[in-house]
Design a protein that fits this description.
It is a single chain. The protein contains 3 helices and 2 strands, in the order H-E-H-E-H. A two-stranded antiparallel ribbon has the order 1-2. Helix content is 42%, strand content 8%. It has one domain. The longest helix is centred in the N-terminal third of the chain and has 13 residues.
Length: 71
């Protein structure tokens, strides 16, 4: 069951964008724990996948202005 202590709205927005674009990836480690455990706070996102992927393609998407992701 998810607790009321969650990552910031900006982090949740980023998670929604990444989940829609990269459905084969799943959230793990610190951020996954932060979704379930109070008062755990995570400042970075850990994603994993069992599928093969090309990091250059992913980075290209993330750097596009229209991706909705900021750096």
């Amino acid at each position: 069951m998810l607790r009321t202590a969650r990552p910031s709205s900006q982090t949740l927005n980023l998670l929604n964008i990444l989940e829609s674009k990269f459905p084969d990836f799943y959230l793990a480690e610190g951020t996954a724990l932060a979704m379930y455990c109070e008062p755990r706070v995570s400042y970075y996102l850990d994603f994993f996948t069992a599928e093969s992927f090309r990091p250059v393609v992913m980075l290209g998407y993330l750097k596009r202005p229209r991706s909705g992701i900021w750096f």
